User: Which sequence fits this backbone?
């Protein structure tokens, strides 16, 4: 059972796909590709988000509170076998700082692990295990218990990732082909997907512990990139609400310049005041 923790800022940017090759070229004197980005093709990330029957977790998150949390199951495999390792991740955001804790499990272990609190208790009460492992398991158990959470949404995307060669803590990712499915939320989902962004839009993200290096700030300024707020699960949920009433098309996410606040548009459509 692998354990990993992350604590950092995550800055997001929506940009035109046509600018991506030039931006990568501008970053190349400072950054190296992630070793998993073979031949510059990137890799696909598969996620299943856990939520309540009425999507309480993501609805609360979309209200932009100071503190928010999400639980997801993540895989880097396109074709899963029972022995493949997947990651159960608890992601918390407090005042802009992202804290992510995750444990690695075999895919065959996931269902019994999540549905059996006794199994989790065996880990959290075993004092021979590292404290961090027991703490992460306690936090995951609390999330599952508090929300009675279950698989709620499948989201996938293709990722290109780069590391600053002088400081591996600085990482930039570019996500394309964002898709979701709420009807069959499974890592082994082969059902119909709905696109979140048009093909000409890329989601760029800077993951960093401290301040932006000057060279990075200058490059982003040269390309006219402006920080934005964007949640993959949050956006997919609002689109899911739209699609249920077949009103989404007129609010299509077609370019960085016309990205809209979906929560606001949904509320305006239904006459909801927040």
Assistant:
């Amino acid at each position: 059972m692998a354990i990993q923790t992350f604590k950092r800022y995550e800055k997001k940017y929506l940009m035109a796909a046509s600018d991506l090759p030039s931006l990568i070229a501008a970053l190349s004197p400072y950054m190296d590709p992630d070793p998993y980005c073979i031949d510059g093709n990137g890799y696909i990330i598969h996620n299943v988000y856990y939520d309540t029957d009425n999507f309480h977790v993501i609805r609360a998150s979309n209200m932009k509170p100071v503190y928010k949390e999400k639980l997801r199951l993540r895989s880097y495999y396109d074709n899963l076998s029972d022995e493949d390792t997947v990651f159960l991740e608890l992601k918390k955001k407090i005042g802009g700082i992202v804290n992510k804790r995750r444990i690695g499990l075999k895919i065959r272990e996931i269902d019994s692990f999540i549905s059996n609190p006794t199994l989790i208790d065996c880990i959290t009460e075993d004092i021979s295990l590292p404290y961090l492992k027991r703490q992460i398991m306690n936090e995951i158990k609390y999330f599952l218990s508090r929300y009675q959470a279950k698989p709620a949404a499948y989201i996938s995307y293709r990722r290109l990732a780069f590391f600053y060669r002088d400081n591996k803590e600085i990482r930039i990712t570019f996500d394309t082909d964002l898709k979701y499915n709420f009807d069959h939320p499974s890592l082994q989902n082969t059902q119909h997907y709905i696109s979140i962004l048009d093909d000409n839009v890329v989601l760029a993200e800077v993951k960093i512990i401290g301040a932006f290096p000057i060279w990075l700030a200058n490059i982003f300024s040269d390309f006219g990139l402006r920080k934005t707020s964007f949640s993959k699960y949050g956006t997919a949920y609002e689109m899911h609400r739209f699609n249920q009433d077949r009103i989404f098309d007129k609010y299509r996410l077609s370019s960085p310049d016309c990205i809209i606040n979906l929560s606001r548009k949904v509320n305006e459509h239904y006459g909801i005041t927040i």
